[in-house]
Amino acid sequence: MGRWMYYLCSNVLGLLILLQFLTLSWTPFLEAKVFPSSVPHVKHSYSFGRTFLGLDKCNACIGTSICKKFFKEEIRFDNWLASHLKLPPDYLPSYSGNYTDDAKSWRLVEISRLTTKYQHDQADKRICASLSKAKSCSIERVLRKTERFQKWLKAKRLTPDLVQGLPSPMLRCPSQRLLDRIVRRYAEVPDAGSIYMDHLTDRDKLRLLYTLSVNAHPILLQIFPEAEGWPFPKYLGSCGRLIVTASTRPLKEFYSSPPEVAADLALQLLSIVNSMRNNDMNYFFYFVHVDAGTFGIFNNGLLFIRDASTLGIIDKQEGLQMTDGQQEYKDIFSCLASDCQSAFSSCNSVREKQSLVMVCQELLPKLLKGKFLQPVQE
């Protein structure tokens, strides 16, 4: 890192104080001018076919909250979409919609693709090609026959051996306490609350395993909800490779914002990174990657983690639970989000200030560049 970047990362407290001072008198400006509060409405609603949901071949969405959002309640796309429903082009990882559960009050939501190295159609073909030689392929039927899922069917409790080799950073070295929290707070089943999986049907277990394998972002939003003060958007539902959450604007849209706005966002950014290292739950959250789409901003100016798929978790209360040797186990579920040949990084290699260094290197220079006069800029 350059001299000023080293100074920045080494003097976080001083930077926090400076940023707080710069933003104290600008709260009315932030709320009234920068963040629009109006929610656009559209006149026409659209019908949703099951193929829209991704993983339709295995009926993964049946009974989930997202199905209720799509089929029993209304989600309307903004005006820029075609009048007849089509999936937006692949280069759009997310797109806006208006959501209501009473047909009267509307709120802006974000429908996001749980993007991975492989798009959903390619990954589905990988499942069929690797495990089935039939011309027609039911993904559900194929995945049910795997050794891993057979272990899931017999299991009464989600244990570390059942998630060995899954590519999510969250599951790189999971504690039993974290896995119990996943089962207890899994929102797609009616009787959540128990650490045992007796209330999960076979299809519930497959749905949970598939989501953990593809992208753990929806699970993180469920087990660490915004209502309890965690810096994530509100979870509304997910299915296959789609998720619906409260709407945010990506941080990259604010790179050209006024100095007072940039200072406020930088302050929030550093505060979130610090809170994810030190919290009452004794979980240490760390990023394995950050970019301009990792964080988002709500209409009220609050900054949240927009994409939690690159977050790893170490349980400081129970310590590391899995060795590197155990992580070498791989199967088809290990390949739904990344190249099967990719090596997993060790939890022992995670540094305490890893996330802070990433934010200082990748985000703060773009957010704060040229915003202030000297010597404040330095």
Protein model, in words:
The protein has a 5-stranded antiparallel β-sheet, with helices on both faces. A 3-stranded antiparallel β-sheet has the order 6-8-9, covered by helices on one side. Strands 7-10 form a two-stranded antiparallel ribbon. It has a domain at 249-368. The longest helix has 19 residues, at 259-277. It is α+β, with helices and mostly antiparallel strands and 378 residues long. Helix 2 crosses helix 11. Residues 4-8 and 25-63 have low confidence and may be disordered. It is 33% helix and 12% strand. It starts with a helix and ends in a 10-residue tail after the last helix. It is found in: Secreted. Residues 209-377 form the FAM69 protein-kinase domain. Its main location: secreted.
Spell out the key features of this protein.
378 residues; three-stranded antiparallel sheet; 12% strand; DIPK2A/B; signal; FAM69 protein-kinase domain-containing protein
Contiguous uncertain segments of 5+ residues: 4-8, 25-63
Cα distance spanning the termini? 15 Å
Strands ordered across the widest β-sheet: 1-2-3-5-4
Mean pLDDT comes to 75
How would you characterize the largest beta sheet? 5 strands, antiparallel
